[in-house]
Amino acid sequence: MTPPANPVKSGPKGAGPSLSEGGERSGAGASRYRAAVSKAAPLRARRAQKGAALLTAMIIVALVATLAGSMIWQQWRAIQVEAAERARSQSAWILSGALDWARLILREDARNGGIDHLGEPWAVPLAEARLSTFLAADKDNTDDAPEAFLSGAITDAVARYNLTNLVTGNRIDPLEMATLQRLCETVGVSADVANRIAVAIRDATPPQAADPAASAASAASANAPPYVAPADPPLMPASVRQLAWVGIDPEALRALEPYVVILPEKAWVNVNTAPREVLVAAIAGLDLATAERIVQARQRAPLKSIADLNALAPGLKPDSLSRLHVGSNFFEVRGRLRLGDVVLEQRSLVQRRGLDVVVLQRERVSARERAGS
């Protein structure tokens, strides 16, 4: 008998397909799986490529946006800097013009001659006013003019005590030293501050010959040991605030600053413009009440000469009035300009030499810098 062609094709009854049949079916499933995988692989590759392209595009867009934003910010910043610099330059030119106008006022005052007092035109401060009202040809048509506001004032520099008076021939003048001590006492500053200021001014003063017109008290001090200049002398302060270089307390400087000044040469206090604290310091034997009476009296009629003080303060010694004056050749010009967001202040020290008004010092300070200092 011939054996069956496929003995393993059929299994026992109820046992399912034979091994051969299962193998054939398994092979067909694997083929279909491989066909499906081979079809899905390009699809996944295309999806991965699309994702990479989208991510790359997003990165490029972000980079371009960042570069564009940076360029726009730099352009905006450059415009702001240029606008601020232009406004500052315009402010400086306007303040220079205001200084020239103040010099013209002082020149006209010198042309008229006479004493210097607080009732003269130069002593009237300029309240803040719109600059276009002064410059416009048509006073009623200033809408297109820039928003520039100018204010300022001229003050007598020798209304304050001149610290340069302290030194005569590289020696501290005892009369002037007593004046500064009285001023310190009046404004509530320690007398030791006066000593340190006097020593600093003396050490910073260049060597000079003795003043032949020095007082008897200064001449008497010639018996003192000869003065030896320091090997490394300090710089001469150009303003009262610079006295901090020699270790003067900032609070003491703030208390003294309204009443003292540093001028390039000796200049006596003007009794027509000095406040009562300076009058008490400059006139030995004067009290605050009498000084206030002098201030009130000169508002009605300025003093024509130092001799007029005898009627207002009888009993003063003639020696105490020898270093006073009723005029001035040193003035401080202050200007303040507000142009848009820029606020600039300028302080100038000028000296009147005959009919010429010479600028000795000029300082420009931004209001923002002042607020931050």
Report what the structure shows.
By secondary structure, this protein is α+β, with helices and mostly antiparallel strands. It has a domain at 158-325. It is 45% helix and 16% strand. The protein has ten helices and eleven strands. It has helices spanning 19-112, 132-135, 174-187, 191-204, 216-220, 250-256, 276-282, 288-300, 309-312, 367-372, and strands spanning 126-130, 148-156, 161-162, 167-168, 171-172, 260-261, 269-270, 324-325, 330-339, 342-353, 356-366. A five-stranded antiparallel sheet has the order 1-2-9-10-11. Helix 3 packs across helix 4 (191-204), helix 3 (174-187) runs antiparallel to helix 7 and helix 7 (276-282) packs across helix 8. The model is unreliable at 6-10, 213-220 and 369-373 (pLDDT under 50).
Helix amount: 40-55%
Biggest sheet character:
5 strands, antiparallel
State which percent range the strand residues make up.
15-25%
* Helix-and-strand structural type: alpha+beta
Amino- and carboxy-terminal Cα gap: 123 Å
Order of helices and strands: HEHEEEEHHHHEEHHHEEEEH
Low-confidence regions? 6-10, 213-220, 369-373
Task: Tell me the radius of gyration.
Answer: 44 Å
Number of strands: 11
Order of strands in the sheet with the most strands?
Answer: 1-2-9-10-11
Q: What is the count of helical runs?
A: 10
**Mass-distribution shape:** elongated
Which whole number gives the mean pLDDT?
82
